[in-house]
Amino acid sequence: MSTQSIMLFVDDADAHCAHAKASGARIAQEPVTNDYGAEYWTDRSYAALDLDGHLWWFVQRLRGGN
Predict the structure, then answer these.
(1) Which of 41, 16, 17, 19 is nearest to 30 (CA)?
(2) Among residues 8, 23, 28, 30, which is most buried (max CB within 10 A)?
(3) Which of 60, 44, 52 is nearest to 5 (CA)?
(4) pLDDT tens for residues 19-44?
C-alpha cells in the first residue's frame, strides 16, 4: 500500500506512456482525460509503478491551470 506518489508534467501523456510500456514499465492506469470543470483545468494522465512499487503519475495539462 502506498501513502504517497509523485506527479510529473509531460508534453504528451500518450506518447510518454507508449515509450514507458515499450521500455517494460508496469502501467497502473492507462491514459485518461480528466476534466475538473470550466473554472479549473483538464488534463490527461496515466500512472506507472517503479521497481519498488512506488506510484508515479505523468500528467499533460490540456486546458487551464499553471
Answers:
(1) 17
(2) 28
(3) 52
(4) 999 999 999 999 999 999 988 999 99
Q: Are 23 and 65 in contact (CB under 8 A)?
A: no
Instruction: Show the cell assigned to 29.
Output: 492506469
Place of cell 510500456: 21
- Is 60 buried (19+), middle (13-18) or exposed (0-12) by CB count in 10 A? buried
Nearest to 43 by CA among 34, 52, 54: 34
Global confidence as pTM: 0.88
> All 3 cell numbers of residue 44?
490527461
Classify strands 42-49 and 5-9 as parallel, antiparallel or unpaired: unpaired
